[in-house]
């Protein structure tokens, strides 16, 4: 995907260092204690469903997807998504989100969850999960646990503990 001023491409191992820098800049040391991080460290993200944004040959944003199970339902957890402060407000975040969600749908995943600000993610079809229905390995504010169905009805069926697919 290419826009007039930036392009979105698949993440590669060579991007690890700049992704780590962007993460540290956005979230600081607290990123290692977040509930979503605890799931990701059980097995890592899926590079084939993860993307970076490039602008004038610099990496200015990324989104990662992690394969999970919720109880027995296969799904993806989206995040982190970060855009460098100097490149915010150019719809780079929106293009990263739309690209990742399209890739998830192509790969036949029925559901995507994330922990984040509902006022931002609602525009991509995310809605709050009923409190207590989906459980992460550390407490999260229930208002920030969001889901987007890629197959209608999946959210009604999904419930329980979130684990990395490698731990299922
Ligand atoms: C969230 C983020 C990825 C959005 O990237 P972006 O490229 O600036 O996003 P876009 O250009 O597509 O969209 C910008 C719009 O989103 C809004 N927005 C950004 N963050 C928001 C938030 N947390 N809540 C509500 N709206 C938000 C902006 O106000 C702007 O609104 P407008 O379209 O009405 O002007 C970026 O702000 C970021 O990296 N934030 C820090 C890291 C973070 O919190 N990531 C999400 C949790 S993992």
Estimate what percentage of residues fall within beta strands.
25-35%
Termini separation (Å)? 33 Å
- Which ions and ligands are bound to the chains? coenzyme A
Total domains, how many?
Answer: 1
* Uncertain spans: none
- The CATH level-2 architecture is identified as 3-Layer(aba) Sandwich
Which bin fits the share of residues in helices? 10-25%
CATH fold label: Aminopeptidase
Discrete helix count:
5
CATH homologous superfamily assignment: Gcn5-related N-acetyltransferase (GNAT)
Task: State the order of secondary-structure elements, H for helix, E for strand.
Answer: EHHEEEHEHEEEHE
CATH class, named Alpha Beta
Using the CA coordinates, give the radius of gyration. Answer: 15 Å
What's the pLDDT, averaged over the residues? 95
Protein name: Acetyltransferase
InterPro entries: Acyl_CoA_acyltransferase, GNAT_dom
GO molecular function: acyltransferase activity, transferring groups other than amino-acyl groups
Organism: Candidatus Tokpelaia hoelldobleri
Characterise this structure.
The chain is of the alpha+beta class and 168 residues long. It has a single domain (7-167), classed as Aminopeptidase. 24% of the residues lie in helices and 31% in strands. It contains 5 helices and 9 strands, in the order βααβββαβαβββαβ. The protein has helices spanning 16-27, 35-40, 92-106, 118-121, 154-157; strands at residues 7-10, 51-55, 58-70, 73-83, 111-115, 127-128, 134-135, 145-149, 160-164. Strands 1, 2, 3, 4, 5, 6, 7, 8 and 9 form a 9-stranded mixed sheet that branches. Strand 2 (51-55) and strand 3 (58-70) form a beta hairpin. The structure holds coenzyme A. Residues 7-151 form the N-acetyltransferase domain. InterPro entries: Acyl_CoA_acyltransferase, GNAT_dom. This is Acetyltransferase.
